[in-house]
Amino acid sequence: MPSNVASAARYREQVHPLASIPSPTRSVWHLGPLPVRAYALCIVAGIFVALVVTLRRWRERGGKDDDVWDVAGWAIVFGILGGRLYHVLTDPELYFGRGKHPLDAFKIWDGGLGIWGAIALGAVGAWIGCRRKDISLVVFADAAVPGVVLAQGIGRWGNWFNNELYGGPTSLPWKLQIHDIDTVSGHAQPCGFGHLGASVCGYYQPTFLYESLWDIALGVLLVYIDRRLRLGRGNVMALYVMGYTVGRGWIEALRHDHANHILGLRLNDWTALIVFLLGLAWFLRHDGFRAAREATPYTGARASPAGAAEAEVDAEPDAEPDAEADVGADVGADVGADVGAEGGRGAEGGRGAEPKREAEAVTEEAEVHGRSDD
Fold this sequence. Notes:
Order of helices and strands: HEEHHHHEEEEHHEEHH
Helix content: 55-70%
Structural class: mainly alpha
Largest sheet: 2 strands, antiparallel
Strand content: 5-15%
């Protein structure tokens, strides 16, 4: 308690509240015995937006709607499991040890989904779905990532309802009002930090809002770039990776919540740096902004009909001259045959009439000579 009192004193010295962003004092509602949690609603809303955006972009690449539903089922399940697993593995002290309850690790609705784990295992799930449907994973990723990052931006509002994911104390006009939320009941309780015993515990950097706005802006930018350049080869995905990790890096620097550190940096900072370098390497290796979009989103057997149809369409202009040449050849042959036949008949007639024409010519010549003599 003395440490909390000292912390509260330091807080009051740093912050002078004038204007602020309010935070909810309730994050759970009940429909009879069924709890409806704001965090879960935000995650579901994000998934819905991601699916709508991905469906539209997948159609633009020549894919079918059913493909998105099939792959998304795998990606969503694996993504949620990966996000929770990453959170538990990187913050085990929150769930294991004296006074902790290991079963709380399964309470996803209380918050705690690590985006790195969600993306990593979500990608594994997408790979499984794509492999089962003969879909190119990089084409699907290029179509999906703008929707994914928009979903991340929407999902961050679940942190707002839970009064979490905020930075250090601040007096900025857009500072975030924070309550001490009981994750079980979903209601605010007397503060155990900041203004001890009060309903408003303090005012902090709204890092959840920074990340939400960054993610939404990045999603819009990716759609714009892809429409202008029609990128392929996984480079829309690489731009997403680089863009998200840059934003996550500076936002992490503002956070003061619990996190494990390595060499003075938060674990998420190291993860962001490594992932950024991987995204940059992929982008440069695959021709950067010059990477052309693939002709078909499919692989294996499903690529063949599309390729055949494309080849047939390409061949149609060439087929017409060939057909005309064939018709011309047939007509020429027929005409040649007719002419040859007529020539044959003429030759035969000419040979029979030749003595007659010679006799007529002699007679005509004699008559001419006779008239001239007269």
